[in-house]
């Protein structure tokens, strides 16, 4: 068993970008100022900044895209627009096409009325904290006045849908075999993957059954996607499919379903991919990276196969950082963010699905058989809405320790990096004790 704490988060930018209710917490004015400061910072001393922008299907994504483009071009930067696409595609195109930075407009798994801005550096990785601090200072009026461009120095916008198409080609190229004869369920969450996922799996020969592919601006993640896996499970069982994959709003996470309709979280996906990579001699150092929220059973099950786990704090940026220092090629989170450093510099739900399909085809077995040797511990997770997540998380430290000792469970209590919530997780040998532990911590949180 192992424990963990929380990450330091800024005023605007959390573990996964600047996120909140569109038009209230995150506004067009915010987006414009982010564009201005990015154009200034990445163009300073180098000429014009080149930024590439993608968005998901939320109603407010168009508003924020226009505001970002206005800010970028006003400060002399050129904005290349990918239109509706996935977060990993922005990362890929940023890195491969030599952009100074990438920007994704999405609130991931949140409901449609939330939105967010994720910023990546030239390597397609989450932007460094020092640069984020400068952006936050500018948003608060604590940074130098940035001169706006004029004349020929004003930036321009460029339609760059060709970049998205090239990313689709990249995904197809990752497969080493045909999926012909396999029946695959896809839940695109009415989000960024609604066109891309079907295109990739159809091109690879699978017979696809797709739900969550009719976005209207307000139905992203609404009863579908990786946070509502029951819809995909029913699709798989009712149609006798071989496997299914559900994505979130921006498709940087994937949750699977085997042929029985049983859920495969990020932990199960890590187990499958680690075992598969090792069998091919491609698991560097025979180790992976996971987070404090991963099930302890993942660690024990992989240890039985001669694979070790390095544990880090929650957040795909933390996973990527630890993978870099540990020279690991595979890492991820229970939530379905899985990183394959050979192919991407961030989590990519579609790459995850392709890697699992590769294992399925090569081993010529049922999806459930890919999990032979895997055993998880009972684990219960609860989210509690609070007014001040950081203050509440700090105030719960003592009661959490008491509950942990009295019930013999592992506890992780932390502020959400993306929502105004406290996330509570209990894990142990007794499911009942896990339920009790979460209930006690929740009750304590609700009194604060």
Structural summary, described in words:
- The chain has 448 residues and is α/β, with parallel strands linked by helices.
- A 7-stranded mixed beta sheet has the order 1-2-6-5-3-4-7, with helices on both faces.
- Helix 3 packs across helix 5 and helix 13 packs antiparallel against helix 14.
- The N terminus is likely disordered.
Tags for this model:
alpha/beta; seven-stranded mixed beta sheet; five-stranded mixed beta sheet; globular
- Roughly how much helix do the residues carry, as a percent range? 25-40%
- Tell me the β content: 15-25%
Unreliable stretches covering 5 or more consecutive residues: 1-9
* Distance, first to last CA: 29 Å
**Structural class computed from helices and strand pairing:** alpha/beta
**Strand segment count:** 19
**Most strands sheet:** 7 strands, mixed
Looking across the biggest beta sheet, what order are the strands in?
Answer: 1-2-6-5-3-4-7
Mean pLDDT: 94
The shape, in one word, is globular
Query: What is the CA-atom radius of gyration, in angstroms?
Result: 22 Å
Oligomeric state of the chains? single chain
Number of helices: 14
